[in-house]
Amino acid sequence: MSEELDLRQSIAEAERARQLLKDPMIVAALDDMRNTVYTNIRTSSFKQKEEREYLYLQLKAIDEFERKFKLRITNGKLAESRLAELKRKFKQVVNLR
Q: Fewest CB within a 10 Å sphere: which of 1, 15, 57, 79?
């Protein structure tokens, strides 16, 4: 039964992650952050190597933030499949009796 609860938790987390990634405020914030970093990279001078490296790390952090939510969504899809499989197996066992 613990596996079922874990799967249901993963599914709920996936739905929440999906909602957050579609939230207009979050979408706008991520876009604004990326645009600001890209603008700062484009307007940096040749000699500002360290600043550009820092900006690159900011981009990677933004991407990683978003990736974590997408990973939750993927895990939720896998959990849905596993839960459906468990239900099918349970029905088979019940029908054998």
A: 1
